[in-house]
Structures are given as C-alpha cells and as structure tokens.
Amino acid sequence: MPTIRTLFVLTGIGFIACTSKDPLNASLGLSVLAGLVTWELIPRLGPTFLKAGLSGKDMCKKGRPLLPESMGVVCAMVYLITMIIFIPFPFVDWFPGVLSERGKLSLHTFPYHKLGSFLSGILTILCMVMLGFGDDVLDIRWRYKLILPTIASIPMLVVYYVSGGVTNVMVPLPFRGLFGSLIDLGIFYYMYMAMLAVFCTNSINILAGVNGVEVGQSLIIASSVVINDLLYLDGSDIPALETHLFSLYFLLPFIGVSLALFIHNWCPARVFVGDTYCYFAGMTLAVVAVMGHFTKTILLFFIPQIFNFVYSAPQLFHFVDCPRHRMPKLNRHLNKLEATYTELEKISTLGRWFLSAYEALGLVRIERDAKGVPIRVNNFTLLNLLLCKLGPLHERQLVTYVMYIQVLASLVSFFIRYKMASLIYEVVN
Length: 429
Hints:
Elements lengths: L1 H18 L3 H29 L3 E3 L8 E3 L3 H15 L9 H7 L9 H27 L3 H4 L1 H6 L1 H9 L5 E3 L5 H4 L2 E3 L2 H20 L6 H18 L7 H28 L8 H18 L3 H7 L1 H14 L12 E3 L4 E3 L2 E3 L5 H12 L5 E3 L5 E5 L3 H9 L4 H24 L11
C-alpha cells in the first residue's frame, strides 16, 4: 500500500537524519522528511480547511472552483517543528558524552550566542506565521501589514544587539575620501534591518495572484541563497563559514516544505497558499540575511520584487487608484489571462506625472476616450506588465515567464556580487 511505503520512507529518512553526527547532513535529512510530511498533510487537511471556511475561489479558472486557502500555515508549522527538532544537532559536540570523548571542549566554551541567534530566528519566523495566519482569517488592512513584520522582527533584532551585532558598513571606494573605509550606522542599521524584514515579507505578497507564483519565486530566491552559502563551505574564514552554515540550517528545511507546497499549488492549483506563506517565506529569507550578515546580497536576489514594488508604488501609495485585487483576469473565450485595469476618474497631479513617466518608458498601457483623455490604465504589477507586452497568456505560461525572470535575476545577482563588486570594494570574498 502507498501509505505503508511512504511510512517506511519517512522512517528511513528520519533515522538517517537523527543518527547523523554532521549537523548539515542531519539538516538535509530532516529537510527531505519535512518535505514528504508536508506533501502528505496538505491534501489530507484540505477538507478540514474548507469546513472551517478557509477557502477561496480560483478567479483565473472557468467555473471559479473553491479551493482550500491558507495552506501555507501547514507548510510553516511543519517547518517550525523540523527546526525545533534540529536544535540539538549544531551543539552535539557539547553534550556530556561527547565532551568526555573529545576532551577539548567544555561547557564554558558553549556558543550561547549561536544558540540565541538560532532560537531568535525561529521565534521571529513563528511570530510572523501567527500574524500572517491572523491576516488570512481577519483580512488585515495594508497599513497594518507594514507594522506586523516590524513587530515580528523584534526577537531577532534584540538578540542581534546583545550578541554584539555589527553596525559598521564598508564604504565603497569612490566615497572613502569623505567617510573613511567604515561607517557606523548605529541605530539606523537596526532600522534598516527592520525595513528589510518589512520589504521581504510584503514584496512576495505583492507579486502574487496566480497559481504557483508566490512559492515559485520564494524557492528560486532560497535556492540562490543556498548556492551562495555553499561557495563558503570550503573557505578558511571560520566566521563566514559559521554564518553560512546558519543560513543553510534555516533554508534547507524551507526548500523542502516549500517544494511540497509548490507541487499542490502549481497550475492548476489544488490549494491556495494564503498570506501566511508569503509572510513565512519573506521572514525566513530576512532572518538568514540579517543573522548571516549578507543583507546586501539578499537584496540582489530580490531584484524582480524590488522592480515590482517600485513599479507598484504609485498605486500602493494611492497616487493612482488601487483596487483591492490587481491580479490578471480570465478571458473566458480564449481561456487565457489578460491584464486588469483601473479607472482614472480621480487622479492626483503626482499620479499624472507617474502616468506620463511610465508611458514614456513603455511600462503602461493607457486607454483614452475620443478626446484623448486617459480613462483607464493597467494595474501596476509585473504580471499585468507581462500581459500587456506579451498579450493574453495561459496561467501556466505567465507563471513560467515570471520564474524565468527570477532565475535570470539570480544569475545577474551572482555576476554583480562576485565580478562587479570588485569595482567598488577592494576585497570581494
């Protein structure tokens, strides 16, 4: 029976993970286990979510089928349980039995700062998951969505501070004559980290609305960070090695559970991920970037999300009317997605300036009346922009194009990080 076979697979992988003396191998084994558990749980819990009223209509399908929503919370809970189970593995060398065997380590050398960073990262992600699920249930307004990640990031920022967190940043070569080689940002660095958490969580939530796009972009970003981490494992820089191992410990289980969710959320989706997953994914990436000290690198991997945020800004800040849902719409005759539009009945002077600038750059499609007066414009999202440029597309095609853009952005990011960075910094690891 498939269920018995699956049970044997899970047991075997769990045994391998739990008997491994290498924390990275244990993390890898637990990640596979977490992915399989998530893959099994999602279809089993779907009917329960439907009965609880956690459901939504797939607006991009004929008939608008009703699907379980907020399944990202299942993914997040499995992830958090996995991370809690994993806690002892990085510190196994300090266990009493191992202490007597090795003789070199003692409880006085226990890395409490490392444990604190690990626990604060888990707590920060847990807080964000709870707040994200609350958003799915209570439908919190956008203005409060900026506050939630800030609150959730407090445990991470506090531990960063008490652990002697560095607030110095390296000054690019052209500006060292003015500021020196290092500049201490002090409290402004903590504000920057809090803003990074806000951006990472909300940027994934903004680039959403079609099957698979939220999980797909998160998987590509996380995989890119993992590849970046692996580049440091053979190096002699011990602090860099430790921080990138920390990143791997958090991201490998994340990729495992996200991949399982992606299978169920890919076109045609059988479940919706909800805002919970967007917050969970964004905060996980923010945690590894902050605690791993590579916040600039993580922003490179977010290039499509940065573009989408800047492009969406006139609507997000209401210079141009912003409807509640800006996702593409289904053309029932073609069975393809088309760009959605917003009316231009009321538009500020600044909004008109944005329209003119975007039109000059070829970033919008404006419809005018017989007198040439703008009456409506496509919603400012990357998804709608692609549909304006490429014409109507099947949902699967649209998501695939977004994934191509995300992969291309990662390749460009690696080139910038390891080739172009030498132009403005004298040392590039």
